[in-house]
Amino acid sequence: MSRELLQNNRTVEKIKAALVRRTLDLLEELAADKPAEYAEFWKAFGVVLKEGLIDDAGQKARVAKLLRFHSTAVAGEAPEATLADYVSRMKSDQKSIYYLTADTLAAARTSPHLEGFRSRGLEVLLLTDRIDEWVAGHLHEFEGKSLVNAASAAAEVASAIETPDKAAAESAYKEALERLDKVLVGKIASARVSGRLTESPAVLVAGEFGMSLRMGRILKQAGQSNPFATLPILEINPKHPLVERLKTAADDAAFADLAHVLYDQAMLSEGGELEDPVSFVHRVNRLIVEGLSASPKIILS
Amino acid sequence: MVPPVNRNQRKAMTTEAQTKEFQSETKQVLRLVIHSLYSHKEIFLRELISNASDACEKLRFEALANPSLLGSDTLAVTLIPDSAAGTLTVKDNGIGMSEEEVIDNLGTIARSGTKKFLEGLSGDAAKDAQLIGQFGVGFYSAFIVADRVTVLSKRADASGAATATPAVRWDSDGEGTYQIQPSDKADRGTEVIMHLREEDKEFLEPSRLKQLVRKYSDHLSVPINLKTADAEETLNQAKAFWTRPKSELTDEDYQTFYKHLTHDSEPARAWAHNKVEGNLEYTSLLYCRSAHRSIFSIGNSVRASSSTYGACSSWTRRRNCCLRGCASCAVWWTRTICRSTCRASSCRTTGPWKRSRRRW
Predict the structure, then answer these.
(1) pTM of the model
(2) Is ipTM over 0.90?
């Protein structure tokens, strides 16, 4: 018997297809009848199942139902949300399934990207396995609802979470945005006013059709060249006091300090690494010293 | 200067008994096996029957390519208690071993296997008992109940009597050395003759042996016979486990077979047993494991799945199977999640995960 003979053997192909179906039957039964057992299974083999979803396009729809995720709507350490649960909780005017990828669950839960979704009561799935970047890309949609990265500049995200008063903020920040583009050239594609931030000063989002920033990092760590790398967009929170100072900073050096600090902070919040951490520390220290001297009482109290 | 020894001289030298020392790791394993399993003495029988059954399976498999190896024999494992001599013999008519294989298998243990085995020992006798089979050190459990073990073996050989591999005899008291010499054993296969310790003579009683076979080895597809002075009977079902009807099998049966198949210390989480009939007839038995075990050197990341994939490919290189055609066993499903056993056309497999290092 040779490997080649069997690999192209129709009988074997049929058995293979049947075994895959049986395996899925088995897992579906386990998930339906013994959720606690299934949760244990998922803990051990969830990543393998996700890999299956990527490898075996023919079974994508069935595997998708077996996936378990963390979610902003479900507290706790165990991933319990299913895509079907998510769809059943969707708002009547919500078109897409939102997800966010991060390196850890804690980083995902506190991500600035979620601020806008939280304030509008939209659920976001939190994906923390490395393979999730590929899962999201391959899954693409579930029951006709497309999967959209909450950390991207997709128009869908914007229309869901952005506020009407953004237009007013845009004109107020017109000049500051132009200066940001110049100072941060080579680091960002562009700067714009954000509608998604309520607490954080700034955030980096991937371009609408660009690769997610985390995916770019994973490829870089793996030593892969990345021809699809695109620069991120810097979104600033027009109501944040630090950002408001961009409008008033007349001194170019002070403006550059502030711009770089905002960019570096956004990069750190993203789970990314700073190209030049020492300069970041110096800039932050300059700002702190300045703040202490300007209004020492506020800081010290 | 010692003159180089050529093949013929070496053969000539082995006509007399030679005393050799166990490799140092082997001594260590021997001691640990005896020590850690003293409270679970009876598992020696499971281990030896399991090895004998594997030897039969191996011959059955090689005979697919070379039918004359098997001849007209029915493969079987035979237990022969001899009260007069105080010995229990576990005999098979499987693949057998040449002299070199006997030395390799019974005198030494692959370094990596030993190390992993020693690392894997937990002090929990039940778990350690599983490990023993997994690392192919099950044979040494014979010394738990025997103060002397004799092994007679003759390698299956299709080349005819004149050039056939000579039979070999191996003797040891498990105390550091063993003797090896030619044997006049005429039939193919291996016999493990245990000279039982006084306090372990219970293993000569047919009723005790029957009970143990039913407990540990009922699922084996090779018949396990008990041969006493006046009769010979088959103790197990002697049918491939998966060919037995679902209605006859209990959860415990499935778990026992799973343990035999995988040596996993955790029970299976779930299984699916299906008989398919029609144009294509086959039976599938899929098991879902409880967890990645560290002793399978599988982590919990993406890397894990690719390393399992690697294990699978190396397995398929080692053994032919019908599922290998399933591009590494249904590509990924069965790869890590499940262990499967299937019977299709003329070939049979026990999944790519069987990484035990059985001897003979």
Answers:
(1) 0.65
(2) no
